[in-house]
Amino acid sequence: MKVVAGQRGASRPPEEYLPASPPPLRRGPVLVTAVLAALGGALVPAAAVPALWRIWQLYAMAFGAVAAVELVAVVVVLGWPTRRTAHFGALAAAAALALWAVSRPLGLMTRFDPWQPADTVAGFTDYVAAGLQVVAVLGFLVVARRRAHPRPSALRRASAWIVLFPVQVTVLATGVAGTVAAGDSSTGPVASTLLDSVTGTFEYCRPDGVPLAMDVHRRSAGGPAAPVVLFLHGGGLVFGNRKPAGPGALLAGPRFGPLRDELVARGFAVASIDFRLAPAAPWPAPLTDARCAVRFLKANAAALAVDPARIAVAGTGTGGTLAALLGVARGPDTGQYPGQDSTVRAVAALSAPADFGLTGLDPLTRASVLVALGGSPSTLREASPLTYAGPGAPPFLVGDGGRKSAELADRLRAAGVPVTEGTTTDRAVGEFLAAAVR
């Protein structure tokens, strides 16, 4: 009988029989890259949870639970880096990737697209999250499976960090941008600089179960029904949102805020909307949403104190293209607000492309058109105002250029449509719209 630590009858097993703890891994550049990717991939859906909660709590809880598990995995892997915890990190990232695949490519979450709230600033935010998850899964698996170098030299360590540093910066920047974009839909509208303005946010349409927001800005409550300008933001049908400040406005261009204040000062109500973005929502989703917004204004004119007979539309960039399509393309007015149509009294298309044909485009512009509309010739023609230019359109302001915008103006003028062209200030836009709707 051995005496161990003063206790008779107790025996200590030989050291070779003690269970070995998992060997720790170095917090090397591959592990750090995987952790950054997993962190970004978890924060993107987490940022969209508040907006998702307002639509349906079950989807919000699913997104929140998956994000929480992955955040725990990030902490565990970074705090206790072993092969076992690296496998746990890979499994958590794979689960988040599976949630994306089930909800977006496979479309099995049929109540509505749960990623749509995250795609209100950039139409590919969910693809960003999925890409980060792929990087995380691969990184964790590489760390877990490769044979650790017992004593890597300082040169070897420095070389690895130098090689992967640009990747880490890219992953970090992508995660931050995706999180900011996904979370922007949860914040409220920015108030006008006019001290006596009144702003209200409304749900104007719910395509496929996803509510779309409209901000209505006006100088003061009460008084007679005001003419209203529907503003459609730019951003290539891929970026932007309804707000005059923030990440969406940065991507859509700076024109809305000053133009809104100019119009409100002239007695207009200004309605700015979020519409569905590509590639999450393929064409003609943005135009369908814009038509629904016009019908909403007409159906709710009394409650909003606007004049349904004096609705104009303005837009910048591809928002101007949508505005032009509302003026020239008589499309189907089906869906919400039956009995209302989407005709408008005037159109201001600023810096708006009038044609999306791929011939003659530089590589960057061609790529942006393909992302927004795809490569189908019929879709490109359908999305081009030049296709429909003819008689019966309302007065047009075609300002500040835009691909084939001069040709659009010429065709409209030849068809007897009043057209104003040239470089436009906010004051000039206000004067044109005021004259057109009076």
TrEMBL record:
An example molecular function term from Gene Ontology annotations: hydrolase activity
Domain of life: Bacteria
InterPro entries per UniProt: AB_hydrolase_fold (IPR029058), BD-FAE-like_dom (IPR049492), GDXG_lipolytic_enzyme (IPR050300)
Residues forming coiled coils: none
UniProt keyword Membrane present: yes
Segment forming the signal sequence: none
Domain BD-FAE-like intervals: 214-401
Keywords in alphabetical order: Hydrolase, Membrane, Transmembrane, Transmembrane helix
Region (Disordered): 1-21
Transmembrane regions listed in the UniProt entry: 30-53, 59-81, 88-107, 127-146, 158-182
Full protein name: Alpha/beta hydrolase
